[in-house]
Amino acid sequence: MGLLDNASPAVSKGIVVSVLLGMTAIFVAMCVTVPTGPITGVDADLSAINSGDCAWMLISAAIVLLMTPGVCFFYCGMGHHKNVVSTIMQALLPLAIIPIVWATVGFGLAFGDSVNGSYGIFGSPVKYGLLHNVGAVPEPAFAGTIPLSLFAVFQCAFAIITPALLIGSVADRVNVSSLCIFIGLWHVLVYCPLAHMVWHPTGLIRMFGVIDFAGGTVVHMSSGYAALIAALYLGPSRSAAAHSDMFEMKEPANVPYVVLGTALLFFGWFGFNAGSALAAGTLTALAFINTLAAAASAMLAWVLLDNLRGHKLRATGVCVGLVVGLIAITPAAGFVNTGAAFLIGVIGAVCCSGAQELMERYGNRFITDTSEVFVCHGVSGTVGMICTALFATTSVNEYAIDGAFYGNGIHLGKTLAVLCVLVPWVSIFTWGCLWVTDKVMSLRVSDEELLAGLDVSKHGERAMAIDVLKVHVDALNASSKAGTPASGSDAA
């Protein structure tokens, strides 16, 4: 039981008012903070800025942001029809929370100068706190031809979608209100340090010699393993309410929603991967075609594997296969040739299909991962990082590091060492964020709320009036069997 679970209405309203006042204070501070140096474009040397690069990065940032609604549709379509609205709400929450935390301290923690004594694990929020010193002048250490402000908003889009991904594992039983606390904590303690280690020039993992083009570790592995820990922490969906038929239903709530979500994710992924080139050029084109190649080969491989496993040709299976391929190529998109990209898609599909089979046979007895986040993001992200260490080549990108396939086995060894440290690190800090959140406000909803469905119990609205429709259908069936016409209201 969390401290705030039994708070009186007066205390709850006081907390809400305090949050609103705190937000206002932050925004006022951002308004009156005087930047140091010519960052706004006035009397600044902006000759390095390339308008084509700016245009591409603006488009990329916008379509990466579109991926978050895509996650909403994908997850709500996969879940139970009584939790559609709640799942959408949960996946949208980072869109409200992360930009504020990112502007306040997140961007500095991720891309500020490494703190002395931190060994390149996290940056200092001082330089970029409240977006101080973030303006029109480029920062060559990150992207030399676009404004630093544009780089910051592009990276913010990555920071938004990452917690949205992990929420899918517990969407059917988590308290939406408590997620507001967890998302902020997890962003500061897990995502930002990981982004610093992988992408900052003095970050620990980057200095160690392990490369990640577009977020295989930062986004997908972090969200995938965090999703597994969250599912373990909250326990299975089945509880004292297990007698209800809603917990036995395996069928997705809305398959067209899954397909729509996949389409939005597929579209956004080209900004996700090709945008990570941080310019419009040949590397962008390489990442673009590699993304398409891996998605195509993984989708086809998944369909064939589904057939071997005795499944019919399912639209949801095709969608999962596509997403698995997109995830697997993410860390390698700008470091491998197109043949390797096709191969990575197939490898990702084989590994994730095997992981899904193991979860269905054994894992689901102990853990409920509602939207198979761990299989898709955790396993595929790990496969993608290993494949990057195998197939990366300097022949397509001078900033890459040749992989084991090209004679550099040390790169593979370093990557495996990083993975062995990274997974426990993400897991421990995620568990800590869950524990702290749970002490403040309970993470798991009650059995009564589970039975009613989170749409009604938490939000007071349904995605569709499906229960009313069922009444009409039952009445029509009953009247048909009795040989009497249904009433006008029932017929309607």
UniProtKB/TrEMBL annotation:
In which compartments does the protein localize? Answer: Cell membrane; Membrane
Q: What keyword terms does UniProt attach to this protein?
A: Ammonia transport, Membrane, Transmembrane, Transmembrane helix, Transport
Is Transmembrane a UniProt keyword of this protein? yes
State the InterPro entries in the record. Ammonium/urea_transptr, Ammonium_transpt, NH4_transpt_AmtB-like_dom
How is the protein disposed in the membrane?
Answer: Multi-pass membrane protein
Q: Any idea where the Ammonium transporter AmtB-like domain is?
A: 55-463
Cellular component, GO annotation: plasma membrane
**Where, by residue number, does the polypeptide cross the bilayer?**
15-35, 55-76, 88-111, 146-167, 179-199, 205-234, 255-272, 278-303, 315-334, 340-359, 371-396, 416-436
Molecular function terms in GO for this entry? ammonium channel activity
One Pfam family assigned to this protein is: Ammonium_transp
* Similarity remark: Belongs to the ammonia transporter channel (TC 1.A.11.2) family.
PANTHER family per UniProt: AMMONIUM TRANSPORTER MEP2
Q: Kindly provide the name given to this protein in its UniProt entry.
A: Ammonium transporter
